[in-house]
């Protein structure tokens, strides 16, 4: 098994080649709007132009979207916008059960609609909100089968053993719901504000996400297929709903809601591991330390050494829980570069996980990050690791 790490600056684009079974995975495909070009980084348009060469002809390729933030997802959207359809055998995204969306009262969807309509359509806030709502149908359009997965699921045609370690199925973010109610009160808005529009989108998304009993243990042979015409219509319907929304004048802007929803999506992102104990790899996503702690406990992962760990949240989350459970790795890789000028860089705490800390980029908007000497800065556009 080899793992290709593309340097996209701040963002993640990873290719996993399972040579012994002639199978490939593209795990996330995104680049932050704040990423700066360097001599070794690759822009999103160039990366997505190269990808058809990588996955065409020789190997069946699956796609994994950890979560729908731009620096993980916008490459998939670019592929879709450029006309790509059904290029992946299977697509895997985090599950959202219909009842979970109802428990939140559709708050995540309402916040996405609100953000999309409140800010300029060209603003990054609006684009991110659009990504949250359109990621599922776009991944379905790019994949012959779409799978909504959670902790415990395995993929029979991948390297064995493999396992999705996170998320658990439910999102019950009480703080987010409280913030929504506070926002309504501050702006003198009714409790059913955006209810009609959110319910329409909920009903559309439920056809992708609603699981069956067959998905509880492993997911071989269970998937949802949609034809291209259906997907085009679904995406157009969601966009039409967004464009119908008329917002009143708001006295309090929705930035608090945006920040909290952003973290909620991070904490629901996919984490998985591949390979046996001699050659296994762990792909952390953007979940915060408390969720990584829960993930390790839920899966009984302790006192274990991996061959390779993709560090959490571009290198600044996940180290403390791993160290607490005596998790180590031959190499820990941060898919790095600044998210914004004030980003502090990758966490030196990963030194407790691995003696070899690799970082895809160190371009930092001219500001000095600490601990540069502790990291090996990768010199190539793509770096390949054999596991």
How would you describe this structure to a colleague?
- This protein has 11 helices and 14 strands.
- The chain has 387 residues and is of the alpha/beta class.
- The chain has one domain (2-386).
- The strands form 2 sheets. It has a 7-stranded mixed sheet. Strands 7-8-9-10-11-12-13 form a 7-stranded mixed sheet, with helices on one face.
- The longest helix is centred in the middle third of the chain and has 19 residues, at 124-142.
- The N and C termini lie close together (5 Å).
List keywords for this structure.
387 residues, alpha/beta, 7-stranded mixed beta sheet, 14 strands
Provide a quick synopsis of the model.
Helices cover about 35% and strands about 20% of the residues. Strands 6-5-4-3-2-1-14 form a seven-stranded mixed β-sheet. It has a seven-stranded mixed β-sheet with strand order 7-8-9-10-11-12-13, covered by helices on one side.
Strand content: 15-25%
Q: N-to-C terminal Cα separation, in Å?
A: 5 Å
Query: Biggest sheet, strands in spatial order?
Result: 6-5-4-3-2-1-14
Biggest beta sheet summary: 7 strands, mixed
Estimate percent helicity.
25-40%
Rg to the nearest angstrom?
20 Å
User: What's the pLDDT, averaged over the residues?
Assistant: 89
Number of domain units: 1
SSE blueprint:
Elements: E1 2-6, E2 11-18, E3 23-31, H1 44-55, E4 61-64, H2 70-81, E5 88-94, H3 98-103, H4 107-118, H5 124-142, E6 143-149, E7 162-166, H6 174-186, H7 195-209, H8 228-244, H9 255-266, E8 271-274, E9 281-283, H10 289-299, E10 305-310, H11 319-324, E11 328-334, E12 357-359, E13 376-377, E14 382-386
Parallel strand pairs: 3-4, 4-5, 5-6, 9-10, 10-11, 11-12, 12-13
Antiparallel strand pairs: 1-2, 1-14, 2-3, 7-8, 8-9
């Amino acid at each position: 098994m080899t793992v290709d790490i593309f340097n996209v600056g701040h963002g993640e684009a990873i290719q996993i080649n399972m040579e012994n079974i002639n199978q490939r995975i593209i795990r996330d495909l995104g680049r932050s709007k704040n990423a700066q070009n360097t001599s070794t980084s690759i822009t999103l348009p160039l990366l997505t132009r190269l990808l058809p060469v990588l996955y065409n002809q020789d190997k069946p390729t699956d796609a994994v979207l950890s979560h729908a933030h731009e620096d993980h997802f916008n490459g998939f959207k670019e592929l879709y916008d450029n006309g790509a359809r059904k290029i992946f055998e299977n697509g895997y995204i985090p599950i959202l059960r219909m009842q979970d969306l109802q428990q939140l009262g559709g708050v995540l969807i309402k916040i996405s609609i609100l953000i999309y309509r409140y800010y300029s359509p060209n603003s990054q806030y609006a684009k991110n909100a659009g990504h949250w709502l359109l990621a599922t149908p776009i991944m379905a359009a790019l994949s012959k089968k779409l799978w909504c997965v959670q902790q415990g699921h395995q993929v029979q045609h991948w390297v064995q053993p493999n396992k999705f370690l996170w998320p658990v199925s439910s999102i019950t973010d009480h703080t987010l719901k409280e913030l929504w109610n506070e926002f309504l009160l501050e702006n003198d808005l009714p409790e059913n504000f955006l209810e009609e529009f959110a319910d329409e989108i909920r009903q559309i998304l439920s056809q992708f996400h609603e699981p069956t009993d067959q998905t509880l243990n492993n997911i071989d042979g269970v998937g949802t297929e949609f034809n291209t015409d259906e997907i085009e219509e679904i995406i157009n319907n969601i966009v039409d709903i967004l464009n119908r929304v008329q917002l009143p004048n708001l006295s309090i802007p929705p930035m608090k809601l945006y920040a909290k929803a952003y973290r909620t999506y991070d904490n629901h992102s996919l984490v998985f591991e591949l390979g046996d104990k001699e050659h296994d790899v762990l792909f952390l996503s953007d979940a915060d330390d408390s969720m990584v702690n829960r993930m390790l406990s839920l899966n009984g992962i302790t006192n274990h050494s991996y061959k390779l760990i993709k560090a959490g949240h571009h290198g600044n989350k996940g180290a403390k829980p791993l160290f607490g459970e005596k998790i180590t790795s031959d190499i820990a890789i941060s898919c790095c570069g600044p998210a914004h000028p004030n980003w502090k860089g990758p966490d030196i705490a990963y030194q407790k996980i691995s003696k070899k800390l690799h970082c895809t980029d160190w371009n930092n908007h001219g500001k000095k990050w600490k601990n540069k000497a502790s990291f090996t800065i990768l010199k190539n556009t793509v770096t390949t690791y054999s596991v």
